[in-house]
Amino acid sequence: MPLPKKGESVVCRRNLLLAAGAAAWANCVLAQAPAGDADAAAFGARESAIGLDLSPNGRFVSYVAPSPGGGAVGFIADVQTGDSKPFLNSGKDGDHLRWCRFVTDQRLICRYTGIVNDAGVLLGFSRLIAINSDGSRMQQLGARASSETAGSRQFDGEVLDWLPGGGGSVLMGRVYVPESRTGTRTVLQIKRGYGVDRINTLTLQATPVEAPRLGVAGYWSDGQGSLRLVAEAGIDNDLLTGKTKYSYRTKTSRDWKPLTGFVDEDDFEPLAVDATSDSLYALKPLNGRKALYRIKLDGSMATELVGSHAKVDIDNVIRSANGQRVIGYTYAVDKRTAVYFDPEYKQLVSSLSRAIPNLPIIDVDSVSGDGSKVLIFAGADNDPGRYFVFDKTAKNLAEILLVRPELENHKLASVRPVSVTAADGTVIPAYLTTPPGTETKNLPAVVLPHGGPSSRDEWGFDWLAQYLAARGYAVLQPEYRGSAGFGEDWKNVNGFKNWRTSMSDIAESTRWLAKQGIADPNRIAIVGWSYGGYAALMEAATDPSLYKAVAAIAPVTDLSLLKKEADDYVNSQVVAKFIGSGSHLVQGSPLKHASAIRVPVLLVHGDLDQNVGVLQSERMEAALRAAGTPVEFLHYKTLDHQLDDSATRREMLTKIGQLLEKTIGR
Q1: What is the spatial distance between Cα 608 and Cα 114, in angstroms, rounded to a whole number?
Q2: For the chain, first and last CA: distance in Å?
Q3: How does the average pLDDT of the chain come out, rounded?
């Protein structure tokens, strides 16, 4: 279909009727929230819609909206009329509806996840279901399970290929567990392991494509129905080793050929198979950073460098919205960059950028079957984002949904990439968010280290940083050594084993705020989530003169306990290797230095946190109380690591706001 040419205009219009259904649920959530400040209510509200998809005929959009108690509801919206109707509820507490995607105009596949407490061990699970757009004929897509199943099935499968034009069928990887009748020798089903079936979502007829095999970790399709890559997990005494072996097949053969031995993810990471070029796109090291390579799957394994960057890792490929072609790749220095080698998509994004220049973060989420209509996400640092449907034929861009309608009338802060020069000359990348309309001088400030530790912040909207800025605080997010994305040397093994370097970078960033005149050195606090919470507590213990308050959300507090928490899981060996052994287990654990923390502390944790057990905060609270340090602990039932509930987040932000106002003012 034709796209706007350079110089041609795209007509923009607004049709926010699709948000009506989501807004009704959001208002219900806010009505049930505990008392708190207005900023906490607005910034703590969950996104009005996630997991959006456009139907093959381009008329309908599916999305998932929040409901009270951390739940979610699936909606179908008519793009033409603006009508929006619920068709699926996430169900009981702890279950999360993640996304729904069209298979036909009336049939969808939805994924929901949850966590159950099995005799003190938290087990995550996920399920795929097929359902009609009116809520009828809901059916589970995983392999049949019953009371006779000899073992639990946490993960029932994944869609490997959506088979556009496949008449309602998909390629699905499925996990099989043997079944036998209790008290008899009757075997009901002997299949075991990960296999692949072609599933008709209308009839549930399953046609085997790959027989189940133990040790298989996954398959990659070429987007046109052919499986071309298989991953085999490294296993030692029933535990994962963290290494994976890959094999491929050519277009004309069913035989698997070796591609790699058992390798770490840092050494080889497959991203996508492209049928057009008959190639695999994968990340491999180049000069200390991840580069993108194209590997021919014709038997020659001829390898070609596609993209690299001198400062950062290449982190992903871009696929066409129907998933059939690889059309570019991405990386992030100060801001995220997309490199397109498909001219049509490059022109599309360029046209959209001209039409909505104030929303530079643009993602093409899905397209109609004929390619004439496109679902677009667009956002910015000071705009949480909005969704559009672009009609290529009419050259019309219709805004259909606000991601965070509660913030529509708030003046949000701009985010500025900055460079912090440490005492040893190291340049630490960081992001500075300052209160809108305020002189950036001698402000109260919050240092906000990210989680991970092998992660990073990016330029864009961050609801926690924006809340703090709205309250009058300068917010600095340092990309300390230990962060991912900046190459192997910067990752510095990781932020647990080399915690001193990570903490030093955070402390240097804090001092930089004061040296630049941005922050009042006597009015600085530190707030963090997950590893960021660990860093907040560790910094308060090792650099106690820098901070007046600490807020730690789902923090790691004891490295030895973190290793022990993994003992009941198959990745325990991987976790133990990541955390390591030695003196840093004590020296680098905030729990062991609780008596050194002399400023007020707020702890926040959910008891279904599978990433960092709630015992980490419980023990930290007890140690701080024993040391006479003021501490408050917000302990939430039935919530996991993300605390994905508007009422909870509102209360948490309110408490953080009260702590900061009491200790560093506004």
Answers
A1: 9
A2: 54
A3: 91
pLDDT tens digits for range 300-337: 999 999 999 999 999 999 998 777 899 999 999 999 99
Residue that is written with structure tokens 């003992």 in the block: 567
Closest CA to 216 of 197, 242, 234, 198: 234
What does DSSP say about strands 601-606 and 631-636: parallel, antiparallel, or unpaired?
A: parallel
User: Which residue has 């690591």 as its token pair?
Assistant: 641
Complete DSSP assignment for 285-348? EETTEEEEEEEETTTT--EEEEE--SSS-EEEEEE-TTSS-EEEEEEESSSEEEEE--HHHHHH
- Between the alpha carbon of residue 649 and those of residues 44, 271, 413, 557, 558, the distances in Å are 5, 34, 20, 22, 25
Q: Which of 18-22, 215-219, 398-402, 458-462 is the least confident region?
A: 18-22
Amino acid at 13: R
Which string of b and e fits 593-617 if b means at least 16 CB within 10 Å? bbeebebbbbbbbbbbbebbbbbbb
Q: Which tokens is 107 given?
A: 């049939």
Range 563-569 average pLDDT? 94
d(CA 29, CA 50): 16
Output the CA–CA distances (angstroms, integers) from residue 167 to 107, 198, 375, 395, in the order listed. 10, 12, 22, 29
Vertex 595 angle, CA 594 and 601, to 5°? 55
CA atoms within 13 A on the CB side of 434: 15
Instruction: Give counts: helices (H), strands (E), the chain.
Output: 12, 38
DSSP H helices, 516-645, are 531-542, 559-565, 572-579, 584-587, 615-626
Phi-psi region of 78 (alpha: psi -120 to 50; beta: other; left: phi over 0): beta
CB-based contact 299:255 (threshold 8 Å): no
Distance of CA 490 to the CA centre of its chain: 22
Chain centroid to CA 628: how far?
38
Residue range 101-126: average pLDDT?
91
State yes or no: pLDDT of 143 exceeds 90: no
CA distance 123 to 125: 7
Candidates 309, 391, 397; CA nearest to 353 is 397
Least confident piece of the model among 36-40, 326-330, 492-496: 36-40
Residue-wise pLDDT tens digits, 508-536: 999 999 999 999 999 999 999 999 999 99
**CA nearest to 476, candidates 445, 505, 521:** 445
> What's the pLDDT score for residue 423?
84
Q: What is the rounded CA–CA span in Å between residue 86 and residue 21?
A: 8
